[in-house]
Amino acid sequence: MRMKIWFGAVMVLLCMWGVGLPPEGAAAQNVKGHYLDKTGAKIIIELEVSPPLPPLIIVIQKLPEGVQVIEAEPESKLADPGRGQVKWLLSGLTSGKHRLELKLDRPAAAQAGGGEIRYRNPADGMMVTVAISEGAP
Amino acid sequence: MEETDNYSTGGPPMVRIDGAKVRRIRERQGLTQLYVATVVQVTTDTISRWENRRYPTIKKENAEKLAEALGVTLDDLLEEEEAEAGGESGLPAEAAPVEELSATARNGVASARRPQGLWLLGVLVVLLAGTGLGWFIFQRQTPAPPQVAATRILPGHVPPGQSFPVLIRINTPSEAAFALIVRENLPPGCRVLVANPAPAGAASQEGQLKWVSRPEKGARLFSYLLVSPETPPDDRVLSFQGQILVGGRGDEAIAIAGDRQLEVGRYHWADSNGDNRIDDEEILAVYDLLGEVDGFAGLRDEVDTLWAAGGYRWDEKTGKYLPEQ
Fold first, then answer.
1. What's the gap between Cα B62 and its chain centre?
2. Are residues B24 and B54 in the same domain?
3. Number of structural domains, chain B?
4. What is the pLDDT along chain B (325 residues), one digit of tens a residue?
5. Interface residues on B facing A, Cβ-Cβ cutoff 8 A
6. Among B53, B226, B262, B277, which is most buried by a count of CB atoms within 10 Å?
């Protein structure tokens, strides 16, 4: 009987520990992003960067087919409707919040797909891919 | 012969240095004659002669380089007027205190009226105490030589006649400052475009890069941009070899570990998997490698452009990579 109680208690503790474990890669997310605006012809993304600072961050935003980018801030490296995405190469970003803006040639922001952030975590050199969340964190 | 006892006013300006001071300062900093000779660009024999006063006067230009290598001012190396009396007599200045002590000891002993056994015991105690004190001072003044490791980082491949980066990282767990000489032998036919920090220009020879790093603490990075030969070697392999000399470790040369070879092929050096495109992982790796290096902005821009294009091809006519349209 005593053995069963001990075994049960150990199992409960293990389950609690398992539930409490952070999802894989979550501890490495020192770069996060969310949409501030994704309506009309405008897409605004806010990045939040914390140490250790990656030397380079790639932000990818999918676009509806045929939609052109009139303006991008900062200037993007690639805005090609044929490939249906915009990519930013952001180097030397400091800690804190940073804003990326896109102006499209038509009110198609709502139909734009999701976006993602890619970087290498300086702490362990692992590649990290983070989805840009729809709302504020 | 690099130096003469030439007091002529028609020649280069000459100064009188104190060889004993030079040796003291050098040994106190744990620097070898080889290190100093390399920085001043003379032979170790010349350094030895300066220290042993076989050349009491040397060119002022060399004296200034010597002072810089030792981290002192020129005045710190020059003979002082009060030391000239000792120098003229043929004895080095630091011999005088020893002579005085000997005379005092002799007088003290001569005037003492002690049994011979106690006198001998007293001398033995003084000798042991002096030895212990000398050993203690020597240990305090001679720090343990710093542990240093050097690692070279190369890309896996590069086409003929194209530039590529080479990094040499110096790591150490020591918190002491140390001087460093880095010697890197380059593959035949390669040409250096830029090096950071600037190498010891006068000392660099065909096929070799040399850096002289002043005493400082912590890790260091040496980097250079190399152009591969237009006609690669038969085995299509470029081999690198280098070593470092660390101040305080005598003449022991430490080989540069890490990457030693790269292949001459047709893919861009940043295209590590050779698929004719620079993908996200590859460009992130480039920035990890070159992000902290000054002077390589042009190289990063080229990689950015090829990444943005989604692919590239090698153009034989222009000898350049062109973004794939």
1. 18
2. yes
3. 4
4. 344 444 444 567 889 889 988 999 998 877 888 788 878 888 888 888 888 877 668 889 899 989 988 888 999 999 875 444 443 444 343 333 333 444 444 554 455 555 677 888 888 888 888 888 877 766 665 666 667 889 999 999 999 999 999 999 998 887 777 888 999 999 999 999 889 998 886 444 568 899 998 877 878 899 999 999 988 888 999 999 999 998 777 667 899 999 999 999 889 999 999 999 999 999 999 988 887 677 788 888 889 889 988 899 988 788 888 888 5
5. 280-281, 283-285, 287-288, 291-292, 300, 304, 307-308, 310
6. B226
Residue A87: give the domain boundaries. Answer: 31-131
Same domain flag for B223 and B257 = yes
Of B110, B125, B141, the residue at which a domain comes to its end is: B141
Strand (E) or helix (H) holding B288: helix B280-290
Judge whether B4 lies within some domain: no
Note whether B239 and B159 are same-domain residues. yes
CATH code assigned at A57: 2.60.40.3670
Interface predicted TM-score of the whole assembly (ipTM), two decimals = 0.74
Selection from B168, B171, B167, B158 nearest residue B290 by Cα: B167
Q: Looking at beta carbons, which residues of chain B come within 8 Å of A55?
A: 287-288, 291-292
Asked if A89 lies within 8 A of B288 by C-beta distance, the reply is no
Burial class of residue B53 in the structure, from the number of CB atoms within 10 Å of its CB (0-12 exposed, 13-18 middle, 19+ buried) = middle
Of the candidates B266, B294, B317, which is a domain's last residue?
B266
* The CA-based dihedral angle spanning residues A74, A78, A81, A84, taken in that order and rounded to the nearest 10 degrees: -90
User: What residue numbers bound the domain in which B317 lies?
Assistant: 275-325
From B235's Cα to the closest Cα of chain A, the distance in A is 33
Domain presence at residue A53: yes
Same domain, residue pair B237 and B208: yes
Q: Could you tell me the CA-to-CA distances from B273 to B155, B160, B281, B320 in Å, in that order? A: 11, 18, 11, 19
* Candidate from A83, A118, A122 with C-beta closest to B280: A118
Q: DSSP state, B199? A: -
The nearest CA of chain B is from the CA of A77 a distance in Å of 6
Give contacts of B282 with chain A, Cβ < 8 Å.
none
Dist CA B66 CA B19 (whole Å): 11
Both B161 and B252 in a single domain?
yes
- How many angstroms separate the CA of residue B304 from the nearest CA in chain A? 8
Which residues in chain B touch residue A127, judged by CB atoms under 8 angstroms apart? 281, 284
